Amino acid sequence: HDPSRIRNFSIIAHIDHGKSTLSDRILEITGSVAKRDMQQQILDSMDIERERGITIKSQAVRVLYTAHDGKEYELNLIDTPGHVDFTYEVSRSLAACEGAVLVVDATQGVEAQTLANAMMAMNANLDIVPLINKIDLPAAEPERVKAQIEEALAIPAQDAVLCSAKTGVGVQDLLESIVYNVSPPQGDQHAALRALIFDSYFDPYRGVIAFVRVVDGYLSQGDHIQFMATHNDALIEDLGVKTPAELSLPSLNVGDVGFVVTGLKDVSLVKVGDTITHFDTPASEPLAGYRDVKPMVFVGLFPIEGDQFEPLREALEKLSLNDPALVWEQEKSHALGFGFRVGFLGLLHMEVIEERLEREFGLNLLATAPSVEYKVYLRNKECICLHSPQELPDPSEIAQIEEPYLTVKILVPPDYVGAVMDLSVSRRATFITMNYLSPTTVELVWEMPLSELIMDYFDKLKSSTKGYASLDYEFLGYKPSNLVKLDILLAGKPVDALSFIIHKDKAYERGRILTEKLKDIIPRQMFEVPIQAAVGGRVLARETVRAKRKDVLAKCYGGDISRKRKLLEKQKEGKKRMKSIGNVDVPQEAFMAILKVD
Ligand code: GTP
């Protein structure tokens, strides 16, 4: 065991810059996966990915590489999750490395998550190997991107690796660069064991499997280990490395990266960021930076058919086996019946889980508009954490409401600064600062309520900047806001699942827009349906859905055919996701309308 021959590194990139393609190419070029198996390999890992829920999970693969100096090196490629929902997991993966390959698309240049990931790598004191990818594309501008990396990120880029992960050009150069520019692991083989968990997942046959980086000491088959943050203990049933096939080893030594089979039955016992030590000879201090992941976005999920409540519970239980960030509690709505209030890390996490519930578990669900967690301070000094707008106490009992704020960083070409300003100010954002990272890249920093970000902000940002803006955010803290609950009444009755919390100054306008939209969304019924928006019993806006005639198509008689087809499609779409509330049929779209601002 010679740590000087080990290199532990991650690949970091903005989404779509080619991280996965590059990882696959590295496995292929180092002969870990034969080219003809490549397709199969990729499919397999997608299966695992599916099984494990979502690509938030990092994995580690060891490849062997004989460098130009004639020596064989052990390269551990530690995968990081690619999306802004999962920044915390990225930082955990980086903590297991000495180096990071920073991939930048030669046609796109530096984007918001390039910057965010590069900052994380610098904060973790990693050696950074810049790589410019997709040089095979005609629109590639490697020289411009080099200059941009230097100006925007202050990372020397003259020797950046020029690469096409697609064709394989430059991958060999990358491996050389990793061997020469990334430091070998330090650490004390004779000290008490400290191993960082940077990933864990539940295997139905073997229990929880953790991916670890041994920082000090060593870990052997059969060892009695302890988890320093959760105080659980376990006996190691197996350990080794992924190549990517599993390879059992007698031990993992200082500097090594590998897997540990614990036999534990619950993934929440083996938390990402926790430190493993020996039960009998524990280390005195855990490794830095353990933190619980916290759900930020909450949604009510209700089965369309009442008999799917138990299957929904079972599906959620199954999914949370492998996803400690997924939390849920039972919820009852007057309008929608029994369901669950489910918490997610962010919108991407939410979308993936909702889709899996429907596709893999065959559930037909109605989802309320997502909401955030509010802290409500009552006059009697009590504080409640509110996940569901319908639970907001009467205003007379409330002393103050606080909502979560984010620090939002946007990268955009200078021409679009005005558009970003207009949009962000309309979303209650406070301007913090603006930096020219390069002549073509401006960084804008804002503080903004999370509730505004989840209202379609990203799509609006993209469309108002012709797709050029990119975004990154992190949780800032809670701040007091003047918030009220906006109720929606259908046929005179408030529909609890349609109510939402909004800033007082925006309630009137949103109420008006929303009633107009609902008027178009809610299908005509046999009777007239008034739609009202109200705050605290005071009606702010009203629209009416007229009673329908017998035949929906009758009114199209003589009209053009495309309109007729549209109507039929709309009817079909509506049938799929419709819930009778009182005696009014309400489609899923009505719930999502709350998020669309115009
Ligand atoms: P996420 O997994 O979504 O974070 O994306 P990623 O960064 O892993 O990117 P991925 O490897 O999925 O590549 C994104 C797209 O770029 C895919 O369509 C790839 O085929 C393409 N791509 C990746 N590398 C190259 C390259 O060197 N040249 C060209 N022409 N296309 C590439």
What are its keywords?
598 residues; alpha+beta; eight-stranded antiparallel sheet; six-stranded mixed sheet; 14 helices; 33 strands; 27% helix; 34% strand; globular; binds guanosine-5'-triphosphate
Helix/strand-derived class?
A: alpha+beta
Low-confidence stretches: 48-58, 554-559
**Lateral arrangement of strands in the main beta sheet:** 11-10-16-7-8-15-12-13
- State the separation between the terminal residues, measured CA to CA: 62 Å
Give the rounded overall mean pLDDT: 86
Largest sheet properties: 8 strands, antiparallel
State the share of residues found in helices, binned by percent. 25-40%
Strand content: 25-35%
Secondary structure elements and pairings:
Elements (H helix, E strand, L loop, with lengths): L5 E8 L5 H11 L5 H17 L8 E7 L5 E7 L8 H9 L3 E7 L6 H12 L3 E7 L8 H12 L7 E2 L8 H11 L12 E10 L3 E10 L2 E2 L3 E4 L5 E3 L2 E5 L3 E3 L2 E2 L4 E5 L13 E4 L18 E7 L5 H13 L5 E7 L3 E8 L2 H13 L5 E3 L6 E5 L4 E4 L11 E15 L4 H10 L3 E9 L2 E9 H4 L3 H8 L5 E12 L1 E8 L2 E2 L5 E4 H18 L7 E7 L2 E8 L15 H16 L1 E4 L2 E4 H6 L5
Parallel strand pairs: 1-3, 1-4, 4-5, 5-6
Antiparallel strand pairs: 2-3, 7-8, 7-16, 8-15, 9-14, 10-11, 10-16, 12-13, 12-15, 17-19, 17-20, 18-19, 21-22, 21-23, 23-25, 23-26, 24-25, 27-28, 27-29, 27-30, 30-31, 32-33
Helix pairs in contact: 9-11
This protein binds guanosine-5'-triphosphate (GTP).
Guanosine-5'-triphosphate (GTP) binds next to helix 1.
